[in-house]
Amino acid sequence: MLKFLLIAAIIIVVIVICVLALAATKPSRFTVQRSVTVQATRDKVFTLINDLRRWPEWSANEGDDSTVRRSYSGATAGKGAVCQWRAPEKPAKGASR
Question: CA of 11: how far to CAs of 1, 8, 22, 25, in Å?
Fold first, then answer.
């Protein structure tokens, strides 16, 4: 039994050393980039993103959350436009009340 534990410990140490050696060869910084090709004219896209009231029409983060309450102030669109929102807190996954 002791021999088995010794072999298992050696294997674990070798695996850890291999992972650390592999990690040491990787760059310390990396970049993640994503791109999307939009099949629309620049004017159409700008119209949608310039007016904060229209963001729910296209934003992937909006979903169907009808509990979000938005208020708008400032300019109607463009510079000076302000959108504030409030949504009830959702419990963390696995949390119980």
Answer: 15, 5, 16, 21
pLDDT at 95: 57
Mention every residue, 6+ apart, whose C-beta is less than 8 A from residue 80. Answer: 74
Confidence of residue 93 (pLDDT cuts 50, 70, 90): low
Instruction: Report the DSSP pairing between strands 81-86 and 69-74.
Output: antiparallel
H or E element, residue 83: strand 81-86
Q: Whole-prediction pTM value? A: 0.47
3-state secondary structure of 46: helix
Bridge partner list, 81: 74
Condensed to tens digits (0 to 9), the pLDDT of residues 35-58 reads 988 899 999 989 888 998 888 888
Domain ranges of the chain: 36-88
Task: State the virtual CA torsion across 20, 26, 30, 35 in degrees, nearest 10.
Answer: -110
**Alpha-carbon gap, residue 86 to 89, rounded angstroms:** 9
